[in-house]
Amino acid sequence: MLSLSRLTLTDYRNYQQLVWRPDQAGTDGRVSVLTGANGSGKTNLLEALSMLVPGRGLRGARLADVQRLGAAGWAVAARLAQDGEAFEIGTGLTTEAGVAGGATVGASSGGRRVFRLDGEPARNRAAVAERLCAVWLTPQMDRLFIEGPSGRRRFLDRLVLALEPEHAREVAAHDEAMQGRNRLLQNPRTDPAWLAAQESSMARHAVAVCAARRSLVGRLNGAPQDAPETGFPAATLELACEITTQLMAHPALVVEDWLRDQLGRRRASDAAAGGASLGGHRADLLLSDRATARPASLGSTGQQKALLIGILLAHAALIAEVRGEAPLLLLDEPLVHLDTTRREALFAALLRLPAPALLTGTDPEPFAPLRGQAGFWRAGEGKLRPDSAFGSEYPGPPAAERV
Hints:
There is one protein chain. By secondary structure, this protein is α/β, with parallel strands linked by helices. It has two domains: 1-133 and 327-403, P-loop containing nucleotide triphosphate hydrolases (Rossmann fold); 144-323, Up-down Bundle (Glutathione S-transferase Yfyf (Class Pi), Chain A, domain 2). It contains eleven helices and 15 strands. Strands 1, 2, 4, 5, 6, 7 and 8 form a seven-stranded antiparallel sheet that branches. Strands 9-12-13-3-14-15 form a six-stranded mixed sheet, with helices on both faces. The longest helix is centred in the middle third of the chain and has 31 residues, at 192-222. The two termini are 31 Å apart. The RecF protein is involved in DNA metabolism; it is required for DNA replication and normal SOS inducibility. RecF binds preferentially to single-stranded, linear DNA. It also seems to bind ATP. It is found in: Cytoplasm.
């Protein structure tokens, strides 16, 4: 069981200073419902929590863009517990010299991204990912099935990252090698040995990336997504990727050699096209309803949303099984496009999972079935207050934490 007992935000978007204790809304704090008008800061709070794991959060924002207007940096810190053992994770952007240490990431503002575990600099980002993972749902993902493959690829890579913390490094290394090759291809006098070196690196990382994606797809397809139990349709996932097809028939080292040869053969055509025609960046994720084999792209908006939620719930259960620890669930506007039956199925599923879940919505009424089981909060003016109509009054933080 993972629990969240305290979240502190400093100069994060519209929050100048916030100390939030989810369990002080009349429940155990495992499920929290945040409501409020558009622009009140609901998604900002979910995004802040998503920044506690490596990456750019659920919005994919630049690190310098999330700090409050006029602030010199930002910070997010949380106190959590796994099976009763408490730990703290913090991250932020600072311009103070000598403060970063440990795992840092550059930012365009000149500051540095800092990660800390239990008050000490994290040795690297993988150490943070090993301690905590998060799964999220955003309204932008409602268009996942009808837009281009890049969004589906990023979605899949986030799922992989939750189980394999080194995956982000492999993706970044692949993209860096690919961009280096693209630059060299634009110069007709480039030494072929330099191109060969970039292609060798690109092939190695592309195979690692595609193998990790293939592994996760296999795990999710093999997971017992029991629709009667979850209330959501089971999905079949498929990778449309030449490298993955090769991996199904040959060992990884053989596929690396094949890809290296293909990149060499395609230099002229790739130079003319301005980019690589083969690599990890060309993969697409195809989804369909397991029971009917109907592609997700042909389903209604409600059916697509149900498939997506079913995948996320199956993924959360897989994380808990494989890692021995549950993920943090961040669901932004999850009830949009869901009928009453599916809404109640989602509530039941969240209450079964051994993980904290945060849900947002404009009004609390659609979440009424959770009354007495979830904490209800109203966001606005850079604050988070309990909704007294749906739960007990929040007494406020201890005197030492009041700001």
